[in-house]
Amino acid sequence: MKRGGNRARALLSCAFPALAMALAMAFALAAALPLPARAQAGAPAANLPANPANAAAPVELYLEVTLNGAATGAVARFTRGPQGLRVDADTLRELGLDPAALGFGDARERDLDALPGLTYSFDAAAQSIALRLADALRTPVRLQARNARPVGAGSASPGMLLNYDVYAQLGANARTSMLHELRWFDERGALSSTGVVGLSGGGRRYLRHDTSWSWADPVALTSLQVGDLITRSLSWSRSLRIGGIEWRKNFDLRPDLVTYPMARIAGSAVVPSSVALYVNGMQQYSSTVPDGPFVLDQVAGLNGAGQATVVTRDSLGREVATSVPLYVDTRLLAPGLSDYAVAFGLPRRDYGLRSFSYAARPALTGSLRHGVNDALTLEAHAEAGAGVANAGAGALVRLGHAGVLHGALAASGGDGRGVQATLGYQYLSPRLSFDVQSTRASAGYADLGTREGVPVSRVDDRITANFSPSAGQSVSASLVAYRLAGGAPGQTTSRIASLAWSMRLGEGAYLGVNAYQDLGLASARGVSASLSFSLPGRIGASVGGGRRGGDPTWNVGLNRSADFAGGFGWNVQSASQAGQRYGQAQLQYLGNAGQVGVLVQDSGAAVTTALNATGALVAMDGALLPARQVGRAFALVSAGVADVPVLQENRVIGRTDRHGRLLVPDLVPYAANQLAIDASDLPLDVRVRATSVEIAPRLLSGVVAGFTLERYQAASVTVHDAQGRPVALGTAVEVDGGAATIVGHDGVVFVENAGADNRLVLRARDGACEVKFRYPAAAAAAASGMASIGPLTCVPIKGGK
Fold first, then answer.
1. What is the Cα gyration radius of the chain?
2. Which of 278, 455, 566, 705 has the maximum number of C-beta atoms within 10 A of its C-beta?
């Protein structure tokens, strides 16, 4: 044992010097050789080819190139020098890269390692190179987090309509009146006139409200209105009724258009991934992105402070979440967007009392708002009339994520000289909101409304705060103070404080408590509590009580609204206020032709009964149709077949009448509205070329949505051969020597367009045969359009023709 150990030690003593000598020679050889080219992104130096014998002479390499993980399909020229791989500017351009952005300079060639923002991996065996640009040098993939509905110029079919609301009170004080809108429309615009007609009783007369013609351009988002109108105003100015003309920017033409600055969130994906956007915990958008940078534009669904979270998830399920705080104020305008209105005309007087009463001298008003950037919107307003001129300017400034400050200063001249200043601040968030605004005007300040007998408030202050301690719970407090010009102090000054609390109690139940106090009059106070909840059968219930001015109040009610597709609705209510009992009951029926109802009211002193009917009459497409009240836009579906289901945005909204028509109200003007018919309910002898259409009606107009339906004579013919067996499946058939078809199962041949007399020629391997038959119209009508004929024997044709 001792001898073996000595021998092992002797061998090791010889091996160590030999190993040390071998390592020394290896290091010396490595030091003598040129260094291999460096490769970023973890590229091993061993992948580089061996240096040529002459290290100073560059070697040309033609390599297959991938860029940012995607194959380019290009084989590009590179050179290998003493320091590694080199590339020229022309090669970079061929690959779609900008040499200037990579800091290429004036050199003919540069080392790949010296180009900032560019990394590579070189595979000598595959003769390929993978290039990757830094995110800062790549064009981000743009994703639209909000998809706008397509908009068009809009169309209108000529027609007229009458919207009406008839009210008839029965009993000793019987009277009947009708509120109406008469409208005419075509491609040139819409002419509308509203008023009230006293049909019976002491108020038998006609009182006109407004008459105007309007036209709109949904592409330029402008509109023109001539006639009676209400001028546009800003938050620190006032509107005026005039009879004249107005030209304005009209964002209402595109209800899908977002006019305020929307957030933009940037991110990057290391590998192709899915991306999801969450705003305040609610998913708003999802899509897929390639590797590299991306930008989410038009992040909506937020008003005030909130948080947007972008989550990227790769194919292995690995997630990366990035949260960004946001603040959005819908009062701001997007950068570069302008909103304006200019109106000229005669101020309207005694509205609702006289049909035609206007001032003798005209007035001119104009308003302008412009979005300078995401955080600044400028405003301006000017007006002039009989003896008064007024002008002012203001701004809204977003203070980062801390809310929006807004202010304005206006001055008046002429018969009323003075100034008005407005200053306010608003902060909104899901948990806490705060709004304060103060407007002060000097004694001589005036505007066009002042000339028409409506004084300007000398003081108008508002403070509102809202706090949500938990989901479904809210506490709010407010203080409102104002002072009008002239009159006794008690009649022109008021300061009212209020406090409210509400809470959601489970599904469909809400509890609320409200209190108020007039700080100038101790007896003017009140407190109330209410509870509303849902009952089975789509029934809503409410109960409440409190005190107002020292008197107890209470109310209780039940209601059920009529279904949109039609049916009955009702409500009952009982209440007491200031010691006086009150009760009412109402029954309504909603149909395709409108809504009718009966109302019974008990005021304690008397019981009154009233009837009510609302609806419309539409004259269009050569027909006069009763319908529900028509709103801003509508369509007349013309199918030509009765009792066909009509769908709006994949929801059944009614069936065609006996003439095959149905009026569809309340469409979105200028947007693509989808209407369809349910072809499964069509008779068997009716076919339709298209079951759905998209229409974009103009504002205040209607469009005929026609569906082309064709009736044809169809027959199912059972054919047997000479032995009485069904003809073989797939046998070729000629119908009257023209249309071709084949035999189905059990020898059945479907004939789509059958005439009065018909001939079928069947051609098989063993020859041809024929079948002749007459179309039984009466039998087909009894079978809802499909006639069943046979079995008939196919008679061989001599000569096979």
1. 41
2. 705
Q: Give the pLDDT confidence score for residue 26 in this predicted structure.
A: 42
- Helices (H) and strands (E) counted in the chain, each on its own, are 5, 55
Determine the Cα–Cα distance for residues 609 and 611; give it in Å rounded to an integer: 7
* 317: its two tokens: 């399920």
- How far is 680 from 496, CA to CA, in rounded Å? 62
Question: What pLDDT was estimated at residue 143?
Answer: 67
The whole-number pLDDT of residue 636 equals: 92
Mean pLDDT per 10-residue section of the chain, whose length is 801 residues: 43 41 42 38 40 61 86 88 85 84 80 86 89 78 64 83 94 88 94 92 84 91 95 94 96 80 73 76 75 72 77 77 82 93 96 92 96 95 94 95 95 92 94 94 92 88 92 92 70 86 89 92 90 91 90 93 87 88 93 92 86 94 90 88 85 85 88 85 72 88 86 84 89 81 90 83 86 78 68 85 61
For tokens 């001792």, the residue is 2
For residue 581, how many other CB atoms are within 10 A of its CB? 12
State residue 4's pLDDT score: 45
At 293, the amino acid letter reads P
Give the span between the Cα atoms of 582 and 602, in whole angstroms.
6
Token duo for residue 31? 């030091």
Residues β-bridged to residue 190: 185, 214
List the structure tokens of 210: 């407004």
Q: Count CA atoms within 13 Å of residue 341 on its CB side.
A: 19
- The contacts found for 464-473 with CB under 8 angstroms, 24 or more apart, are 464/433, 464/434, 464/435, 464/436, 465/432, 465/433, 465/434, 465/435, 466/432, 466/433, 466/434, 467/431, 467/432, 467/433, 468/430, 468/431, 468/432, 472/503, 472/504, 473/501, 473/502, 473/503, 473/504
Rounded to an integer, what distance in angstroms lies between the CA atom of residue 595 and that of residue 163?
Answer: 12
Which token pair is 18? 């030999």
- Residue 669: CA count within 13 A, CB half-sphere: 23
* Single pTM value for the model: 0.72
Distance in angstroms (rounded) separating the CA atoms of residues 395 and 406: 6
H helix intervals, 278-367: none
Strand duo 633-638 + 701-706: pairing? parallel
The two three-digit tokens of residue 233, written as one number: 């105003």
Within a 10 A sphere around the Cβ of 53, how many other Cβ atoms?
6
Please report the pLDDT score of residue 757 as a whole number: 87
Instruction: Give the pLDDT confidence score for residue 385 in this predicted structure.
Output: 92
Closest alpha carbon to 741 in 723, 779, 715? 715
3-state SS class at 415? coil
What is d(CA 733, CA 713) in angstroms, rounded to the nearest whole number?
18
Tokens 């009676």 belong to which residue?
228
**What tokens appear for 796 in the block?**
């061989």
Angle 482-484-485 from CA coordinates, rounded to 5°:
150
Question: At residue 610, what is the residue type?
Answer: A
Q: In terms of Cα–Cα distance, which of 409, 355, 348 is closest to 380?
A: 409
pLDDT at 719: 93
| Residue that is written with structure tokens 């609806």 in the block | 615
Q: Is the dihedral of CA 252, 253, 256, 261 positive or negative?
A: negative
Q: Backbone phi, then psi, for 93, in 5-degree steps?
A: -65, -40
Q: Which amino acid is at 178?
A: M
Token representation of residue 508: 């469909």
- Please give the pLDDT value at position 163: 95
Q: Among 548, 593, 538, which Cα is nearest to 571's?
A: 538
